[in-house]
Amino acid sequence: MFKPWRKLEDLRNECDTYAESFHKVKLHLVEALQYHERLEELQKAFETARQLVQQCLDDDLQKQQSQDDPENPIGVQNIEAGEAMQDFKDLGDKVIREIDVPEIIAKLNTDQKRVFDKVICSKYPV
Hints:
Shape: elongated
Number of strands: 0
Mean pLDDT: 77
Number of helices: 5
Number of domains: 1
Largest sheet: none
Strand content: under 5%
């Protein structure tokens, strides 16, 4: 039992004997022990959490380094790039028909036609 003291009377804690003093503070010692055990559990939990976070960071760093390829500096996966290129080629293969502007204008509804006319008149005044 640790108890700060300067005089022997401090150890007895205003009791007649040292045994009485010990039994008087024994409950506080049990509480202190339980507190210490909880504190140790928390420290272990924090250490475990720190290790898990570090492991996740290391895994992410390793994943990032494994994806770094000098021939692929922007990190695009080849599958996605291949699909994008195929889409681009397919678009070029389609026959682009000539756009018939008067036909498009004729298909405008009343409100669209009004806005179109207003834009055209402001751009090209009569």
